[in-house]
Amino acid sequence: MTGARDQRALRPVKAEPGVLVHSRSDRELATAQWLLAAHPAPEQAREAWAHRDGVCLLPLGTLFSAVRLPGRLVHALADPTEPADADVFLSDALDGGPVICDPAGLRYYALVPASMPEKWRQAADDWRALDVELLGRGTYLGVPRVDAVEFDPHTHSSYWSVPMPSAAMLCTPLDVARLIAAASHHLAAEADT
User: E-assigned strands of 19-174?
Assistant: First the structure.
């Protein structure tokens, strides 16, 4: 009788469809590992996150590239009263794609696929007039730790204006191009008035 009871208890469980949920800490760990994989010596980059101002230099053009957006361009559309206002605007405009803010230089860096500098070369030439730069191979970007997600007025250190939602989740180039076009039109209209 005991054997029959054991066999019933060990029956295979039928898999039910559903959603696999990962905790925020799991996503942050995976994102950090993915970002650090861009560095030729990931442990050096990890140490930079731990020691300096929480920012490490990562090479662009392998796993991801970046579009540098001047603050005046973003603020023309966001009209922020606080840094968090611009962060919310960017999250909406770029559909949650990751953006780093450098408050010291008042610049934003939208992380995009590594192929964007090559595929969007002609548009990038036009964007230079707006002080927008498409950064790829041969360029390094100061990337904050994945848990640096708020502006700190005491350090003015870079932070994630829009945190990377998960490893390899980047901004869509078309969303970034639309943001630049909208800001350009807005600034041109302001200049006319």
Answer: 55-59, 64-70, 99-102, 107-113, 133-135, 140-144, 159-162
